[in-house]
Every structure is written in structure tokens, then in C-alpha cells.
Amino acid sequence: MTILSVPLGDRSYDVHIGTLTAEETAERLAEAMGNPSGVAVLVDEHVAEVSPRVAPLLAALAARLPCVRMFRLPRGESAKNLAAVERTCQWLAESGYDRGSVIVGVGGGAATDHAGFVAAIYLRGIAFALCPTTLLAAVDASVGGKTGVDIPAGKNLVGAFHQPCVVAADLGFLGTLPGRAIAAGMAEVVKAGLVADAELFASLEAILGPALGPERLPAAVARAVRVKIDVVSEDERERGRRAILNFGHTFGHAVEAASGYELLHGEAVSLGMLAALALGEARGVTVPGLAARTRGLLAKLGLPVDVKARVSPAVLDRMEVDKKRRSDKVRFVFVPRPGEAVLHDIPLAELKQELQSAI
Amino acid sequence: MTILSVPLGDRSYDVHIGTLTAEETAERLAEAMGNPSGVAVLVDEHVAEVSPRVAPLLAALAARLPCVRMFRLPRGESAKNLAAVERTCQWLAESGYDRGSVIVGVGGGAATDHAGFVAAIYLRGIAFALCPTTLLAAVDASVGGKTGVDIPAGKNLVGAFHQPCVVAADLGFLGTLPGRAIAAGMAEVVKAGLVADAELFASLEAILGPALGPERLPAAVARAVRVKIDVVSEDERERGRRAILNFGHTFGHAVEAASGYELLHGEAVSLGMLAALALGEARGVTVPGLAARTRGLLAKLGLPVDVKARVSPAVLDRMEVDKKRRSDKVRFVFVPRPGEAVLHDIPLAELKQELQSAI
Fold first, then answer.
1. Backbone phi, then psi, for A144, in 5-degree steps?
2. What pLDDT score does B212 carry?
């Protein structure tokens, strides 16, 4: 097991990564919670149904902590709206959870975003812990304190910065994940390498097979989480450097939305990174050939790379409501070479035009 | 005009109180906002309809700031739910308001709670300013950074702590308020005197008429706001002393809910304060006779004082979901004598029993 510490002053917390037993997970959570008045475990209903790891986790928590009860969240993205948030809050209130209670979010990124946002606003904020069950959630959603849900106008347009008290990423949960979801998670691992860890990127390129075996996955996940922690602890509220984590996300979010969310987030980020690298090469910001290398790596991991086929005026127009936009400029992330990222503010119209010709 | 400063480190802000012209209000807001990318003015639809002060305010803001647009919030309490919050956020996104934009909330406590909560969660938090238009909002809702809305299980069960960048309380807005709403606001002024300002309480007792004339009202409002600022700046997140502001609210919220919200908040607080004083006298915590004195004052102000007729097991049971409750105890506020408050943790069952016999 790897333990990474997120240094955020009096809101610092640990991230535990590895194949954890239910007892180990419960022990870590109980330690971080101190003396809660109750523990509300919010579990993605699909995870609750298919994963053999949920019941033992609940039992192990109940053996250590008071008032442990489970609430099933709507599956995946259907948890990411205010109506679902209201239902969860209603259940918390009816169940008597108070300011001394702690929420545990169990599931993928949608469940952890939902759980964190509920914790941020229920009774104006209570503590929470996260148990990510997908690769994407483990490397991305569970660290950084960004919580939130969607509104019709766009994804993650409402939310809060709220840090968990502990994250326990039991990679055993990945056993019930389809290969497509694993691949999508790997996109964020590749992103971490590209923006801040050249060695991680090189080690991924060195892999021959289509996925990391169980012996190498935990180390790669831990490295990707390390990147995120380093960036987030420098810039918790995304005022500056944290924006580099949005590499591939400006176009990625647009193509994800345009697909009607048929594309998984990681798949969209795969396309978004390739678009950003192509644009970088066209502008002379990115070292020539990096787009092709990355394309090879992403294809090998089973991720979509047909960015040319995906670009269209409709997709580019989706970038308008990107919340990173200030006024008429987009803060766009470029990777000059693996392990390095820079931010350029580009007028939206210019960006659209350049993307269309660069891709 | 009185200017009170709320000292909260880098989130400090000023509260301007008086009969302000639209130009004065707009000037204060523009100064505090700096250089926003846009200004979204959320106005209670009833205020927008009846108050002659809204149109000049919008014009004065538009003369100084970019992209000033108005959105009408559902009237009063009907703005206090997540569905209404989602509609406002949707409008903000569709209108292109971004992280550099500022929200202005114009209305009573429901509108200011709604506006502040929207500002807390839209794009994970943007800046906001408040223009309270009721006496209650001026003395209570606009200071302290508590924002939030209701869910079916109870009032204010979801929300956030989020401080405005400025508050401009133009008491000219009170001109279109019914007398009942003015009286309800006075309940919070009386509360401020009772918990922390003996002189204010004495000056209110000295008044002969049923309400404060326009020449004395601004001073009383400013004193009540001063009390709130002092307490809030000591304890922003309500971990200790801030709880004294809940004087009269434990029973008050219960009786307000039990009335189906036919009682105004201030009317319910009037009853709640009398219940708390009666309980204090029965316990020997409160100086004998203070309940009767306060009853006389509240009755003179036109507030309901028939607390005996209002208490019932159903009302007392409503205290269960009070979010100030930790585990099975209620943190109850007593006033030993005017200007002084203490907190006692009382088991809920004991509290119910004592209240029933003390009232």
C-alpha cells in the first residue's frame, strides 16, 4: 500500500492506494474520522449491486463506527444533478445525520463528486471520506477537493471546493470494471505524465501490452495521484498553476458533451489531449512529434484517437460555456514536452479557428 | 449613513446602513467589486414589482459596471429551494456569467439566502453583494455569511458559509413593506439587545409607540447589525459563541414550521424568545421578570406573544430536526439578563418536558 499525504494546512489528509482489505479500508477511515456521531455511506447503486467488496466494507465500518447506514446513489452520471443531491440530503436529514456525522462516498467520479458536494452543503458542510472504485476516480476525482454536479447548461457548473478527511483507493474494486473504463482511467494517468512527470510518461510508453498488469498499475496510479497532489496543494482554488490539470479538457469536455456523454470522460480527454498537442505543434509550443507519440500510446491503451473525425463547428461551439473561461478568452494548456505544461490565454474565436486547421 | 466593518481577514467587508440613493448604493457596490466581468442582479420578483427603488438601482449599476442584467427570483420563501437555485444557475450560465462575475442579491432574507448560496456554488463560488430590502434581512440575513435553502425535511438544511464583498442596506426599501414585516424584523433587533446589548434593549423598552420612527430606526438597526458583526467575526463557522444568535430560534423554528410558515420568521422568533426566557426563569438561569418585560416590549411592537397557545407536542417534536443538534442534545441559548447569553447542552427529551411545563 502507498500512502500519499495531501498537505493543505489544517485540512491535510492522506490518500491510501493499493489492494486493500475491507478491514484495512475501514481502519483508515475510522482513524481519520475521529469520533463521528454517525457515518452515512453513499454508494453508487451499480457498484453496490456488482461489487463483492461493498458488503464487507459496510460490515467493517459498522464494527468500528456508530450509525453506519448505506444510501444508494443513482448509477454513474445520473447522480450528478441537483435533484439527486436533494434526495440524498433529504435521506440524511430523515436519518438524523447531524453536523458531527461523516459521509463516505463509494463509487466512480460521479458518485464521489456527488458525495463531496452533498458533504459541502448539507448543514452548510460536514466531513467526508472517499472510496473511489474506478481508475478515473482514483487518479482524478478523489483528490483535489473539487466537488459538484451538472445543470442543463453544462457539466460541473455548480459545486464547491471541499476537501475529504481521507481517501482510500482500494484497487480491488477495479476487478468488476469493464476494460473500457480502465482504459478511460488510464487517459488521466497519461495526462499526469504529460503535464508533470516525464518519467511516468516514459514508463507508460515502454509498456508493450494494452494495459498495465496488476503488478505495475498501483505504482502508476500512485505516481499520477502524486502529480495531482503536488499541483493541487500549490493552488487549491485553481487560481493559477492548477489549471494545468485541465490539459486536454477544454476540447475534451466539448467533445464529451457533443457525444451526448456516450464517450467516457477519459476517452474525451484522450481526444482533447491529442487536439491540444496538435495545436501546440502548429503554434510551435510543443516539440514536433509528441502528438504522434502520444497518439500511439493512447491507441495502445485502447483509447479513441480519431480526433479529426470528432471535430466539427458544433463541437467547437460547446467550448463556449467552459467555466474556465474568463471574459472572451480561454485559458488553454499546452505541453511543450513530456513533464512540462504552460498556460496561454487565447481568444475563443482564434482558438476555434486554429483547432479546426491544426487537427 | 452608518458604515460598519466586518473584520474577517482577507474576506472583510463593509455594511452600509441608511436611506441611500441609488447612486450611493451603486457607488458602494462598484467600489467593493473592483473590476468584474459582469454583474448579475437577482431580485425578488415582488420587490421588482412594487418597489420604485429597483429600476434606478439597476440604471445606476449599469452606468458603472459591465453586463448588468436582472433576473427575477420567485417571491419570498418560494426562492428557497434547490429547483429555484438550479433555474438561477442555468440563467447565469446561459447569460455567460463567469468566474469574474459578481452576483447582487436584492430582496428579503429568502432572496439574500438564495443569492448567497447561488454565489457559493455557481462555478464553485463567485463573489456577491447584498442589498437587503426588509428589516429582517438588513439586521439578520445580510451579515454573517450563512447562505442556503430548504429541503422537504427542514429549513436551511443545505447551504454554505460564503461572505459577501459588500452589503448596502438602503432603508428606503422599507417604505413598501407592510407593518407586519417591519414588526417581524424588530424581533431580531430585540434579540440583539437581549443577547449582547443591554443599552439597545433599554432604548427599545423606552419607546412608547408601536414602532420606531424613521429618525430612530437607522440607529437601532445599526446597533443590531453591530451585535451580529461582533459575534460573527469572533466565530465565523458557528463552532461556539455564534450560537448565541440562535436565541429564540430552537423553539422559534419549530413553531414557524408547525404554522406551515404562516408565521413570519421574526414572529416565530418572538415566540421562541419568550419560550426561552420562561424556561430560563424556571431553571433559575434568567433573572425573574425578564420574560414579562420582554413580552410587554414584543407586544408593543405588534409581535405575537401567545406562546402558551402555540406550544403542543407536535410543535415540540419539530425541534428534532434542528441542525444545531449534535447527537441527542440541543445547544440551547439562555439570556440571564439583558445583554448576556449562555449556552447549555440539554438532552432533547428533557428540553421538551421542561418547555411544556415552563411556558
1. 125, -20
2. 63
User: A149, A157, A158, A331: best mutation site toward chain B, by most B Cβ within 10 Å?
Assistant: A158
Residue A325 has pLDDT above 70, yes or no: no
pLDDT at position A326: 54
* Residues B358, B281 contacting (CB under 8 angstroms): yes
Does the domain formed by B2-176 have CATH 3.40.50.1970?
yes
Query: Nearest CA to A206 among A351, A109, A338?
Result: A338
Closest CA of chain A from B94, distance in Å: 7
Give which of B60, B71, B73 is closest to B112, Cα–Cα. Answer: B73
Chain A residues touching residue B157 (CB < 8 angstroms) = 89, 93, 122-123
Phi, psi angles (nearest 5°) of residue B114: -65, -50
Complex confidence, ipTM: 0.89
Q: Which of B158, B236, B323, B345 to mutate to test the interface with A (most CBs of A within 10 A)?
A: B158
CATH number 3.40.30.10 given to A185-208+219-358: no
Joined together, the cell numbers standing for residue A316 give: 467547437
pLDDT band of B237, cuts 50, 70, 90: confident
B68-73 vs B13-18, strand pairing mode? unpaired
B262 burial level (CB within 10 Å; 0-12, 13-18, 19+): exposed
List the domain boundaries for chain A.
Answer: 2-176, 185-208+219-358
Q: Across the interface, which of B146, B323, B327 has its CB nearest the CB of A37?
A: B327
Question: Could you tell me the CA-to-CA distances from A166 to A13, A124, A129 in Å, in that order?
Answer: 5, 20, 5
Q: Residue A213 — pLDDT band, cuts 50, 70, 90?
A: low
Model confidence, pTM? 0.91
